[in-house]
Amino acid sequence: MSVQERVDDAVNVLVTIVEAGGAIVIGAGALYAFGRLLWLAARDRTTASFVLVRLDLGRFLALGLEFQLAGDILRTAVSPSFNEIGQLAAIATIRTALNWTLRREIEEERRQLTAGQHDRPAGP
Q1: What global pTM score does this model have?
Q2: Helices 82-115 and 47-75 sit at what angle, rounded to 10 degrees?
Q3: What is the mean pLDDT of residues 47-64?
């Protein structure tokens, strides 16, 4: 086995680990947020409490997207073709735009919570 093949194999293992980490972060965040949502729906039905769940979920999603982007970058780190570079650029653009949107929404929700705009009861 050549050195290039060994490096490729090592990078593929790293990509798998990093992408699995991202999936675990997103999955754990979704489960955590769902559990909190059920708990809050049973005891505290204010809009502010649900917004906090959204903020937590948004943070998990943003972190998971960062891991996924890291995996994409690792995948193209070893002798990438022009096609792979183009795909990475497209994926990085989409994931960065998603992450930027999530962060903007998180900051807006946080600002509204601080201003006390989410204090009314949720639901009908």
Answers
A1: 0.76
A2: 160
A3: 87
